[in-house]
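Supplementary material to the annual report.
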Amino acid sequence: MGSFFNALFNSSAPFLRNALLAGLLSSVLFGVLGTVVTVKRIAGLAGAISHAVLGGIGMALFLSATGRVANLSPIVGAIIFAVLAAIVIGIVSLKAQQREDTVINAIWAIGMSIGVLFMAKTPGYTDPASYLFGNILLISNRDLILMGLLDLIVIILVVRFYHQLEASSFDPEFAQVKGISSSLVFLVILSVTAIAVVLLQTYVGIVMVIAMLTLPAGTAGYSAKNMAHMMLLAWLYSSLFSVGGLIIGWILDFPVGATVVVLAGVVFLLASLFSMVKRRLKG
Amino acid sequence: MRRDAPVILEFNKVDFSYGPVQVLEGASFHIHAGEFVALVGPNGAGKSTILKLILALENPNKGNITLFGSSPHASREKIGYVPQLITYDPAFPISVEEVVRIGRIAPFARRYTPEDQQAVEQALEQMDLSDLAKRPYRALSGGQRRRVLVARALSANPKMLILDEPTSNMDAESEQRLFSALGDLKGETTILIVTHDTSFVSSLTDRALCVGEFGPQKMGRKVVQHEVVAIDDDSLKVLHNTTLSHECGYLKEPTNG
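Predicted assembly:
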């Protein structure tokens, strides 16, 4: 534990401090956005967006390494694919009468496959694992600033439109009748989730972003009184899991992203078990 | 007398289809202010489509719909809608009071006002739910949840109340409480109940409209009015072998209450 704090305050090795800050900043998005994704039951959609992002990263790496587009950052490719995936999924979800799941799973698989193909043809060594499972060494000051900005935007939107968000999440059809455009709310949620996924995948990786968008919120859901309470609890749990995962990962030399998710998963399963036993005892 | 009261909802030769599947063909009917009307028909006949058209969630392909003298989109805020089922997260954290408060929501309002809170409390009282106000919605029985959704609709003081299959999955006590509350509203609020039970409707009913018979092209369904006769104190029987014009469908002379 001592070595962790020594490294944390070591000015010549800022990556641990950046990782801690990334954990705390991402917790806002995991807590607030995760609650919305969970209560609206669109984790599958968020999962498809997050996995499609690999296609954009692979494309950007390929174009940059082959000199076709000089210095193209992977994050640019990731954002393009995330937004495209969000638009297609949004249209399919709102308009399609059937086979919605097929399209969503297709986007999930095709996005990843495109990423693997581009990476295979990219000159030099490219490690897909660092994008799939995250790498705290990759977190830059720019990532932290972008995360902070997105935190701010999400908090402002949620505070301003909390009642409309609650109404639309609980019963979109009724909200529509009351003059709230549930389709617009849904598309904004998907778009913000898409951008968040791009920023968060640096921290926990593409595969595990979706776990962190659902596990802390799911744990919070067992004891939350309302959606705002659930957001705050999920925010708190995400912070604890992030800091806890970072400390454990550092001490035991484990990958931090995976450690954070395992920690969140174990607590979620324990909370589920506790809730089930409590219900049984109540009769 | 309600048959002399102004017409607040009118379907005029409405056609509607979902892609190639035609659901309604030349559907025409109207409802007067203060009436208690049952819209009956088997599952899949198009009852929910009619509701979606009234609520401007869908638009007709042909014909027109007038609600409170203008388009459904412009007037739907005057409607209190109680859906049959809502596909919400079963673990959604929300209290009974918060659900009812959603009935008072405005598209851009930042917070609820003291008047909103007063309306919420009144609606809870009307549906006999004041004691359950702080309870989590997810902890209620199916019948209690349905009454909460009725209270949510009532909290906006609607001129017209539309209930989609209000008694499905409802226990006898909740059903009795619901119809007692609807009886209190009858006359002041226009009530449209949608039910798949094609044979029997509540004794509160003034008229029964049936969606089920095919239109002239045999493609979609139309809406016709059948005679209803009393069989006991609580329910009326719908006589499907009769077809009444829209002007003579009353079982009894309507009263204001």
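Chain B touches chain A through 33 residues (CB under 8 Å).
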